[in-house]
Structure formats: structure tokens, C-alpha cells
Specification:
about 170 residues; 3 helices; about 50% strand
């Protein structure tokens, strides 16, 4: 597995679903952690997702192509810089339609309060690199999020190695 420069690793990690991997905006998570009166939902929005470390396995042919894979360790913070979650994830380019590559992304977010949330889905590398929002299905595994379901969204920003993210989980109905 090759190690890339941080910018390229970030693009590979998120584009290959990365977080990334994979999923990120900016208000305090604690201020956003409710879903409205009586909804029981937990919402984290306005988070910044920063790539801390990423690897990229470039299968032949060289460049983004079928068989490429990546992994990452990212961090979610609120507007005040408070750590909301550590994120580990991996991706694999699954298929191609025309010029568009599609990847499976799998993230595990370990929140600062001890809860764990997993998000998995298929994203477009083309749209991600273009800065378009990507959304994955998410579900709570442990802590106060256990049994909750929802979605995790992220978008590549103009700032190197930084994404805007959000996470919304609601009780099953």
C-alpha cells in the first residue's frame, strides 16, 4: 500500500469514501444535538471533519479505477474546536458507469460521549471530488445511540483535507 501526500490521501480517502470516509459543517454539536420537541432525534450539524491520516491502494490501471481502495482516520470537531468524534473508515471502488466511479464507504464514528455510530453506503467519486454532498445510511451501535437510525452526510470543502459533515439519528418507529 502506498502512502500519499496528505491532500491526495484526503481526496482518496473521501473520494474512495473517505471520509471520509464518510462523512461536516460548523455549529457546536452540543447546541445541535436535538431533533426538535418530542422527536427523540439527535442531530450533529456544522461539524468540521479533518483527515488525520489516510492511505490509498492504487490498483492498476494507475489513477482512480476499479479495485482501488483507501482507509482513513479523521476527526470531527465543532465550531469551537471541541472534538465530537474520531472516525475510522475504509472504501473500495465497486463499479463504473460511463466516466463515473462508485465506491462503497464504511465509517465508524466513536463519539466523545462513548457512543459508536456506523455509516455505510455507496458514493460517487466524481460528485465527491466536485464538492457535492454525499449521504450514507447510519445507525447507532452503542451508548445512547444504540438502535437509532439515520444518515451521515459530508462534503469536500475548498480547504485542504477538510470536509463539512453532519449526523442525524432518530429512534426506530
Amino acid at each position: 500500500m502506498r502512502r500519499l501526500g496528505l491532500r491526495r490521501r484526503a481526496l482518496a480517502a473521501v473520494a474512495l469514501t473517505a471520509s471520509v470516509a464518510g462523512v461536516l459543517v460548523g455549529a457546536p454539536a452540543s447546541a445541535s444535538a436535538t431533533g426538535g420537541a418530542g422527536s427523540g432525534c439527535v442531530v450533529f450539524k456544522h461539524l468540521t471533519e479533518t483527515v488525520l491520516n489516510a492511505t490509498y491502494n492504487d490498483a492498476l490501471p494507475t489513477g482512480y479505477s476499479l479495485g482501488d481502495s483507501g482507509s482513513w482516520h479523521n476527526q470531527l470537531t465543532d465550531r469551537n474546536g471541541k472534538v465530537v468524534a474520531d472516525v475510522v473508515g475504509a472504501s473500495h471502488v465497486l463499479f463504473q458507469t460511463g466516466d463515473e466511479l462508485w465506491t462503497e464507504q464504511d465509517n465508524t464514528d466513536t463519539l466523545a460521549d462513548g457512543g459508536v455510530v456506523r455509516s455505510v453506503g455507496v458514493t460517487s467519486v466524481t460528485d465527491l471530488v466536485a464538492g457535492k454532498k454525499q449521504t450514507l445510511k447510519a445507525w447507532g451501535l452503542t451508548g445512547k445511540y444504540e438502535g437509532m437510525i439515520g444518515e451521515r452526510s459530508f462534503r469536500l470543502t475548498d480547504v485542504e483535507d477538510v470536509y463539512e459533515s453532519s449526523l442525524r439519528l432518530c429512534p426506530r418507529r
